Amino acid sequence: MTKxxxxxxxxxxxxxxxxxxxxxEIANDIGVTAQIVSEWVRRYQKNGxxxxxxxxxxxxxxxxxxVLNYMNETGTSSRDTAALFNISxxx
Length: 91
Fold this sequence. Notes:
Elements: H1 6-17, H2 23-30, H3 34-47, H4 50-53, H5 61-74, H6 78-85
Helix pairs in contact: 1-2, 1-3, 2-3, 3-6
Family: Belongs to the IS150/IS1296 orfA family.
GO molecular function, one term: sequence-specific DNA binding
Protein name: Transposase and inactivated derivatives
């Protein structure tokens, strides 16, 4: 899979949100799957550009448990939870 820069991710999301191109068209153009572009769009809509600028973070055990408890209590999917908390993966 192709390594996609932050700028390319932001441009891909903006291209999709402009409504002139499909996820598949954009994904094929930059060498990723439509599912990946869809995830970028979801995260962008929840957290804006900041979602792509965040670097690796170490989370405390308490924070991790809070995220997992939220997922368990609300029945939120792991993808939606990740977007909500602006993390790469909740579990």
